[in-house]
Specification:
The chain has about 170 residues and is mainly β. This is Biotin/lipoyl-binding protein.
């Protein structure tokens, strides 16, 4: 049994024992899945077709980013062991906890590529910082949830300034 969530507001209990035996919140889930291309699928459910693209999948942290009919959806999966570790306060023991991303040098923010509430993986691009006539892509130092963005495009920043806060 997995708990799949998009954050605090939405969650589902999923029991997946193969494509023919799936339950969602205790009810049978009747669906058909067809692979269109690597990482792209068509899901048929309830008389409707959904196009699903896997944007990112981190199996170590059980976080996934999907695009369903053009809408981005960031998901987190937890099994029984994950829930037990959470209750014992050990869930973050193995993970590097990052609270914020700071500017490595002074420069100009050219582009912000994330939004508050978005789940990111280690290495995902967060911001583009122009410094000394070069564009530098600042990447997530670890996986996590974006809490807030402290800058906007066209902002000048100083070395050490907090750019992104993680939840």
């Amino acid at each position: 049994m997995l708990t799949i969530s998009t954050g605090l507001a939405h969650g589902w209990e999923v029991d997946f024992r193969g494509p023919a035996a799936v339950t969602l919140n205790g009810q049978p889930f009747d669906w058909q899945l067809a692979e269109l291309a690597p990482g792209r699928y068509q899901v048929l459910h309830g008389g409707r077709a959904y196009t699903v693209e896997v944007l990112a999948a981190d199996y170590a942290t059980k976080t996934f980013s999907l695009k369903i009919n053009g809408q981005r959806l960031d998901l987190r999966a937890q099994d029984q062991l994950d829930k037990l570790l959470d209750r014992l306060g050990l869930s973050n023991a193995a993970a590097a906890k990052v609270n914020e991303l700071k500017a490595p040098m002074p420069g100009l923010i050219v582009e912000v590529r994330v939004q508050p509430g978005q789940v990111v993986q280690k290495g995902d691009p967060l911001l583009v910082l122009e410094a000394m006539k070069m564009e530098n892509i600042l990447k997530a130092p670890a996986g996590g949830l974006i809490g807030s963005i402290k800058v906007s495009a066209r902002d000048n920043v100083t070395k050490g300034q907090v750019l992104v806060a993680f939840s």
